[in-house]
Amino acid sequence: MLKLNYSKLKFECGTDEAGRGCLAGPVTAAAVILPDNFKNKILNDSKQLSEKKRDLLKPVIETEAHCFGFAHVFQEEIDEINILNASILAMHKSIESLKQTPNFIIVDGNKFKPYKNIPHETIIKGDGKFLSIAAASVLAKTYRDAYMNTIHEEFPMYNWKKNKGYPTKEHREAIKKYGITKYHRKSFRLLPEQIRLDL
What we know:
This protein has helices at 51-64, 75-81, 83-96, 131-154, 169-178, and strands at 12-18, 27-33, 67-73, 104-108, 120-123. By secondary structure, the chain is an alpha/beta fold. The protein has a domain at 12-147: Nucleotidyltransferase, domain 5 (2-Layer Sandwich), CATH 3.30.420.10. α1 (51-64) crosses α4 and α2 (75-81) crosses α3. The protein starts with 11 loop residues before the first strand and ends in a 21-residue tail after the last helix.
């Protein structure tokens, strides 16, 4: 069972992102403040859960959370400010969208920039340790997946319904064959043998 909170403060928010290693689409973050009595036996790091379980958990989290927020930072901005800064920006934006200002923030991973003057703690593998980070990881992943499913309709040849996450052979083969789209991250190494051309 994951722990409810780290700081013992009432409005502690957990935040996490999804889509950091992907070749296309946004990096998406979510922030969640859970009530003191929240319990859930299935909730875990979204990477440990099947898509079916994530989809079942999403409405449970949204109904039972004290409040939640999510935000996308799109590929153009990722290319401009780099993926680490984009991930942190997405987390900041998701915290900003919460109805309640948190008085403590716990972050999955080891990189974060202070948000306003709210104290925070970065926790490596936090999505497997604390319920609010796990909840944020599930929301970030399901909101990003929903977005990728939408753009899949526009460019079905990349099969983003299946290739939403980390680079797959199928996605790279499609890039080789069809080139890239406006949704691809141009600052990423899209093909293993990619070379820079001096134009």
